[in-house]
Structures are given as structure tokens and as C-alpha cells.
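Cont'd.
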Amino acid sequence: MASPSHEQPGAPEEPVVRFDGVGLRYGRAPEVLKDISFALQPGSFHFLTGASGAGKTSLLRMIQLGLRPTRGLIRLFGHDPATMRRSELPLMRRRIGVVYADRQLLDHLNAFDNVALPLRLAGRPAADYTADVVELLAWVGLGEKMDAYPAALSGGEQQRLAIARAVVNRPDILLADEPTGNVDQEMALRILRLFVELNRLGSTVLIASHDEDLVARSGRPVMHIANGRLGLFREAGE
Amino acid sequence: MSAQSNAGAATAAKRKPAPLLPPEDARDGALVFVVAVLCFLACLAAVAALGANRAANGWRTQLIGSATVIVRPTASETADAAAERAAEALSAIRPGVTEAAVLEKEKAEALLAPWLGSGDVLEDLPVPRLVSVDLDPKAPATVAVMDKALKAAGVDATIDDHSLWLKDVLHAGLMAKIAALGAAALITAAAAAVIAFATRAGLAARGDLVNVLHFAGAEDGYIAGLFEMRFARMAALAGLLGAGAAAMITVAARLFGGGAGLTPVLPLAWSDLLVLPVCPVVAGLVAAAAARFTALALLKETV
């Protein structure tokens, strides 16, 4: 707990995400997160744990530039989001894949179009990405449901769809909020393998989860939030 | 199972991206109606402006094309004789005058009858005689030229070239045009405000979608563009409906409103219909601008 920051001295690359003394409060309420400092090196894989309401989702939202910290400094890909122009944010966000706890699928788009969304927004033509999207949907087990709308999918299927959308453009960093909350053990392991695969390809991964079994199985380092403070619970390989 | 998956792959090969904004919902019907009514009113204002312009032009040519000369009797000559000579002298002005004729005595007396009655009193009064002059529309003779000709003939006369009336008529025509254009401008502003309001409501109702698009890396301009396209298309359709209704009114007025259009005061022409197709285009452009402006302003307030 003493030094939550585990930035290695002389690291060759700038961390993908770096928090320095970040605090967050909603309105006049006491701070939800206090003195959060950590750095995620490129290609790292962390779990984020903590009781429900501890601030895991708030932390993830700050990384994806959806919340501004009330104090402290955030650096994302070496840039300070606070000083960035608004027009620069979309490019930064395209490098971040997010799996939301509530999935946030678009109900009026079918599975294919939901997954293709980030590619479409990045300006890639449909002819260019169709094969990739079809392959990814097959990989998450939705190959037969490409034309189904989210309302027609089960909770687990929706979860896999949200994950496919988050990873489809090979983001530099993948944030996942309870990605295995609605799936059975087998699918949870499969999803974990997908994240590991993505990590192997170079993506930095941060997964908020309370699935202790999954966290233990992964053998990856864990950041733990308690009482608004962040501690490095366990380094990889310990 | 495998046949099904083949079918899925086949459709995947030639799929078209679905629209990111969900298909219109029910409240768009009311919006189309309001914008269509505004377009209808704007079209009527435009047609009325054209009619007013044409009426003013008509009055103007009638006034410019003629003059009236009032001839008074002199000690040596009766009014009738002086008027005859005045008409002769004026007819000789070429180019400039096409015809000059003494207004018949009966007609002149008829003009005075309302004030003086038709009794013998007119016989005893030195009633001036009128000469009506038709001017050459291409090169109308000026008052100075006509005055010179009358002086040379030794006639005591006053020329009224209707310039007093002309000013009033031109003024009235201008006022009618300003009123019609003002109405059109107000209606356009109202339409823009309605679209801005609808865009605000649309963004609020689709907050979830806007949020997802934002965090998936969509630029503000891209999201604004979705609403811009939707409202431009909707307003163009409403413009088409409004212009169609206005066209029906115009055609009816032209067909059943008497020979010269609605009334002699507001003459309509078939060519006035040509202004109506402009309406859907303007409606679309105004809606696009209003939606874009509103959406960009609102999106700036989001994270």
C-alpha cells in the first residue's frame, strides 16, 4: 500500500496511462477517489478490484476522458487531456476500447452494425472492414446472430457483443468494466483469453472485476481500491 | 445450421451500414406539419410579393404613359378653341407623343358633375377644357417639352404628368414588397427556431446514442451531421408539402379569381408558380444550418 505507483525508473516508453495525485469528488460530496497515482506501461495487463461503489467505474471513466478529475494530473499516451483541444479528443478516444458494465449497445443497430461502429466512426469503408467484423463476431460466438438486434440477444450474448465492439479496432488500451458479469464460467475464460490475445498483440489491458476466481486464474497484477485509495495488491508472478 | 451460417456470410458480404440515427419516431409527424405550415405561409407571402410588384408596375406604366393638360380660356379665345389648338400643338411633338385629343365636353362636365351638379351653372363658368395626351412609352415627352410647345402656340395651360401620383404608387408598391419580404424573413426565422428546438429535443432524447458515439471516437461535427441531415431532409419534405399547398391556392386564384388574377389589385401570373420550388431548397438549407448550429453548441457542453 505504501507506493501504489509502480512506474519503473528508466522505463523506455512513456506510460500509456499515468495518474499523479488524482482526486475525484461529485459535487460537494467527500472525495470518492483520493491521491490516486499509478502508471500503466504499454503492453501491461492489470485487474482493478474493489467493493461495489469503491470507485472502479469512476477511475475507468477518467481514463476514457469521460470524467475530469477534481485534482491531480492525468497523462494519456503522453498527453495532458486537460490542455487538449476538444477536437483532439475523438482521435484519442479511438485508441481506447471500452466495455461498459451496462454494455451501452445501440438498440436500433443489429449485432454487425454495433460491432462495426468504431471502424465506421474512424472513417473506414464498409467493404474494408466487413470480413474483420464477421470474423470477430464468429470468434465471440455470435456468428449466427449478426443480423439480430440487441433486444433479441441474451445477457451473455449482449456482453460478448459489447466486448467485440470494444476490441474491433485493436485499441491501444482496453478498459473493461465487469466484462464477465453476465456470462458462465466457460465464456468468462474465453473472454479472458480474448483479452490476453489482444494484450499479446500490444494492447494495454485494464479490467475492473469482482470475479475473484477469474482474477486468480489470470495470474495478472491487481490494483485494489479501498476507502478511495489505490493499492497494488499483487504483482504478476507473486 | 451450416446453410444458415452461409446465408449469414453471404448477406454480410454485401451489407449496407444502417443509419446511426434510429428511423424517425412519431413526434416527427407534428414537426413536419408545423414546418409545412410555415413553408406554406412563406410561399403565399412570396407569391403575394410578386403580385404586388406586378400591380405596382402596371399602375406605373399607366401613369407614365399619359398626361393631362388643363387648358383655360383667354380673353381672345374660348376654351374650346384653345383646347383644339393645344391638342394640335401637342400632337406635333414627335417622338414623345403618340396622340393628343380634347376630352369631349360631355365627359369633362361628367367629371365635374359630382361637385357642381349638371345644371346650367356650367355654361356660365369659365370651365377649363382637358386634353388627354398619350405619351410614347419608349421616349415619353417631358413636361418641359410639352410646356414649350404650348407656350409657342400661345395657350394658357397646365400640364399634369401624374408624377404626384406616381410617387405614391411607387411608395405603395415598395411597402407591399417590404411587408411581404418581412413576413417571409419572420417565417424563416420561426422555422429555424422550430428546427433548433427539435434538434435540442432530439439530442436530449438520444443522449444514450450521442454518448456511445462520443466515446467510440465520433467528432462533434459527425454527430451534428446526423441531426443536420435528418432535419434537412425532413424540412425539405415539409417545404415540398407547403409549396404544393401554396401552388394549389395560386392556381385556384389564377383560375377563379377573375381574368387578371385574384383581383385587379393583385394580379397573379402562371410564372409566379416558378418561385415555389425554391421553398423546399431554402427550407432544407435553413433546417440544416439551424440543426448543425444547435447540435454543435449543445455538444460542446458534453464531456
